[in-house]
């Protein structure tokens, strides 16, 4: 397994890839996730973050656009 700490882009909180793709158990051992499980976790996380960003950012973008069109924003912000 590749150790992320040895890469040039690693930050101070990086962990080994084998530890990142595993689940801790009460007895201290770690259960390694299969490729399908890793994919589903990544896919679900991506869908949730994309959905959340749409819910949060879209209304603010609509408000900003309407303010720009109506001329209620100060000139430097248009």
Descriptive report:
The relative contact order is 0.07. This protein has a two-stranded antiparallel ribbon with strand order 1-2. It starts with 16 loop residues before the first helix and ends in an 8-residue tail after the last helix. 51% of the residues lie in helices and 8% in strands. It has helices at residues 17-20, 35-70, and strands at 22-24, 30-32. With 78 residues, the protein is mostly helical. It is rod-shaped. The chain has one domain. The model has no long low-confidence stretch (mean pLDDT 76). It holds the Pfam family Mito_carr. InterPro entries: MCP_dom_sf, MCP_transmembrane.
Chain-wise SSE layout:
Blueprint: H1 17-20, E1 22-24, E2 30-32, H2 35-70
Antiparallel strand pairs: 1-2
Subcellular location: Membrane
Solcar repeats: 37-78
InterPro entries: MCP_dom_sf, MCP_transmembrane
């Amino acid at each position: 397994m590749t150790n992320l700490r040895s890469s040039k882009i690693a930050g101070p909180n990086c962990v080994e890839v084998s530890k990142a793709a595993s689940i801790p158990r009460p007895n201290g051992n770690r259960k390694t996730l299969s490729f399908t499980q890793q994919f589903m976790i990544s896919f679900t996380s991506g869908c949730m973050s994309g959905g959340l960003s749409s819910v949060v950012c879209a209304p603010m973008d609509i408000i900003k656009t309407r303010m720009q069109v109506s001329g209620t924003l100060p000139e430097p912000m248009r």
